[in-house]
Write a structure and sequence with these properties.
One of its GO terms (cellular component) is cytosol. The protein is an alpha+beta fold. The chain folds into 2 domains: 8-139, no CATH class; 169-434, no CATH class. The protein contains 15 helices and 15 strands. It has helices at 35-39, 56-64, 80-83, 89-97, 107-113, 134-139, 203-217, 238-242, 267-270, 282-295, 300-316, 357-366, 371-381, 385-409, 414-426, and strands spanning 8-14, 17-25, 28-33, 72-73, 122-126, 169-176, 180-182, 192-195, 225-229, 247-252, 256-257, 260-261, 263-266, 327-330, 337-338. The strands form 4 sheets. The chain has a 5-stranded antiparallel beta sheet with strand order 4-3-2-1-5. Strands 7-6-8-10-9 form a 5-stranded antiparallel beta sheet, covered by helices on one side. The protein has a 3-stranded antiparallel beta sheet with strand order 13-14-15. A hairpin with a 2-residue loop joins strand 2 and strand 3. Helix 7 (203-217) packs across helix 14 (385-409), helix 10 crosses helix 13 (371-381) and helix 11 (300-316) packs across helix 14 (385-409). The protein is globular.
Length: 435
């Protein structure tokens, strides 16, 4: 054990259930399940990467292996489920700035900074060192050594919340809908995600708003959202820094309800993938659909929603529908359902799109899609072809019927209107409605 190693520990609760402990030392991090959580066949689902409802044998195999990739990571990174809770970009920097000790500005410390308001129903707090079970010390990171000085992790910052992703955003509480939004305080949870505009340019805000309305018109269940004046965010200097007359996109959090938190996880977390691996091939999406077909409380309707959403992404020019943009909700605590859609953007209409290498490549594939593309996907996922193809046809038909008028009545950026209409006229997939 290296000299000067100072282990850190966090408790991991799902609602009021102790799931286990997150342990870090020497840039190695491990999740150690609590004994009661491990032995409870009726446990709530923390992540499908860790526990599989109805398959206790596989769950036991995962939870008993301290080196399982769902539980263990190195190089200062958290295990995949926990890594997926972290923000990126400006929000990450804001959370780092709340940490007083430099050691707590890494992934482990940033998670603790937002530990009271994380995505889903997870709550992470500094562990009571005196109450640590011996198994946590030995199986965690100390290697059984009992002479190590354990570091005290700084707890959550008041008002701090984590929202995963790269886009500049804030997690806010609604003080007066449409008039005032604040940082969460005094134990109040955030209930809204504020997507912030670029400096002096809110065109992407309206692109996303219109995209979400178009998706809804084509039959996709979406998270409610609405552009709001930036000046309604009660954060000193924010409107002045970005542009006083601009708007942000206020998106209702589907993992928050009047009664409190609803647990959720995104596709990367479900599939034990680090956030950096959010772009994936067909195999990953096949796995998502098969999980929905097998486990979702909404059954085949969630499968239909998946296919409708993918068809809409193609028609609208959204080449950024990666795994982190598909989430599972656990309203009953155990079994998943597909969350409402979010982060739908006409990427093809954004300024500078031609330089977005990966998105341009994905867009090229979307432009070649036909009904056979979805038929092949359904076969690979072992989904009845008639269900998948009916969902795609329904979405395409509704899009062609409704989108042209909506593009005129909604606050559509001119470039977006041109791009979407062109796709409706020229894409092979769009021709389905004319057959």
């Amino acid at each position: 054990m290296p000299d000067g190693l100072r282990p850190r520990y966090l408790t991991v609760h799902l609602h009021n259930v102790l799931c286990g402990y997150l342990c870090e030392a020497g840039r190695t991090t491990r999740f150690v399940p609590g004994e009661a959580f491990r032995g409870d066949a009726g446990r709530p689902t923390l992540s499908l990467s860790l526990t599989i409802p109805g398959n206790e044998a596989l769950t036991a195999t995962i939870l008993a292996n301290p080196f399982h990739p769902a539980l263990y990571n190195t190089h200062g990174e958290l295990p995949p489920y926990f890594a997926g809770l972290l923000p990126e970009g400006e929000l990450r920097r804001r959370l780092e700035a709340t940490r007083h000790h430099p050691d707590d500005r890494d992934d482990f410390g940033v998670l603790a900074a937002a530990g009271e308001d994380l995505p889903g129903a997870l709550i992470v707090r500094p562990a009571d060192i005196d109450a640590l079970p011996e198994t946590v010390r030995t199986v965690g990171v100390t290697g059984g050594a009992d002479n190590l000085e354990i570091a005290v992790v700084e707890g959550a910052t008041e008002g701090a919340a984590s929202v995963s992703g790269v886009q500049n955003k804030l997690a806010l509480s609604t003080a007066h809908a449409g008039k005032r939004y604040t940082m969460p305080t005094h134990g109040r949870l955030s209930d809204l995600i504020a997507k912030l505009p670029a400096r002096n340019d809110d065109s992407q805000i309206f692109n996303e708003y219109v995209s979400m309305q178009l998706a809804q018109a084509a039959g996709v269940a979406v998270a409610p959202c609405k552009p709001q004046p930036l000046a309604t965010i009660d954060v000193p200097g924010l409107a002045e820094a970005l542009g006083a007359d601009l708007h942000f996109l206020a998106v209702d959090r589907f993992d928050r309800e009047p009664g409190g938190r609803v647990h959720a996880e995104d596709g990367c977390q479900v599939l034990t993938r680090m956030p950096s691996r959010k772009y994936a091939g067909n195999d990953a999406y096949v796995a998502i659909v098969r999980l929905l077909e097998r486990l979702s409380v909404r059954g085949i309707e969630d499968v239909r929603q998946f296919f409708m959403r993918q068809a809409v992404n193609t028609l609208i020019g959204n080449s950024d529908a990666h795994l982190k943009n598909f989430s599972f909700l656990y309203r009953n605590g155990t079994m998943p359902e597909l969350s409402p859609a979010y982060d739908i953007v006409s990427v093809a209409a954004l300024s500078g799109f031609a330089a977005f290498g990966q998105n341009v490549a994905i867009d090229g594939l979307q432009r070649k899609q036909t009904l056979e593309t979805y038929r092949d996907f359904a076969r690979e996922a072992k989904i009845a072809e008639r269900i998948a193809l009916a969902a795609v046809k329904d979405a395409v038909t509704l899009a062609r019927e409704r989108w042209p008028a909506l593009l005129d009545t909604l606050p559509t950026p001119p470039a977006m209107r041109t791009v979407v209409l062109e796709r409706l006229e020229t894409l092979p997939l769009a021709r389905l409605a004319r057959r």
